[in-house]
């Protein structure tokens, strides 16, 4: 269900949700495999994609219907999303086709989100009497603002690629997300990791000025010191 492949030149790794017959819906086992594939990656950049016509339909609804411990399942998804957000690699979500529910939440956990013109996004949980509980209620307003987040989460409406770009849900609309992964991977890995860590800390209200100074000095010594 999860494929992990290193680019021929070793610049980045592609992690693919590979269950196209179910629109790449995620089971607990698939969540664990996804977490391992991202966290264990040695490459400075990871591109997260979906096989077939969808990025990810979110949680497998057959699994959701039979949950004995819904809170544990929500916590499982939250842990995987946080592992993606805090991984050493820069993680690029390359959304091509539909991202729904948990698929949107996985994309939100990534450092960069880019979409093809065929990408669409929707938080459809309210249509089933649920909501996105893999960190979406926290990450979505941080990314698009409270008003837009409530609009998306309460309406269950479909957002196309261009609107997603206008809202800041994705940074670019591109023909091939691989190009973005390769562009990022052309940069110095230690600087990529430092920027990711500092921006993530600042976005959560952490103090970054001192850490920024110290990290800049460390990188300068590594690359320009005698």
TrEMBL record:
The UniProt entry, under InterPro entries, shows: ClpP/crotonase-like_dom_sf, Enoyl-CoA_hyd/isom_CS, Enoyl-CoA_hydra/iso
Q: What Gene Ontology molecular function terms does this protein carry? A: catalytic activity
Q: Which Pfam families match?
A: ECH_1
Q: Which family does it belong to?
A: Belongs to the enoyl-CoA hydratase/isomerase family.
Spell out the PANTHER family in the cross-references.
ENOYL-COA HYDRATASE, MITOCHONDRIAL, ENOYL-COA HYDRATASE-RELATED
- Protein name from the UniProt record: Enoyl-CoA hydratase/isomerase family protein
Q: Which organism is it from?
A: Halobaculum marinum
Upper classification of the organism:
Archaea, Methanobacteriati, Methanobacteriota, Stenosarchaea group, Halobacteria
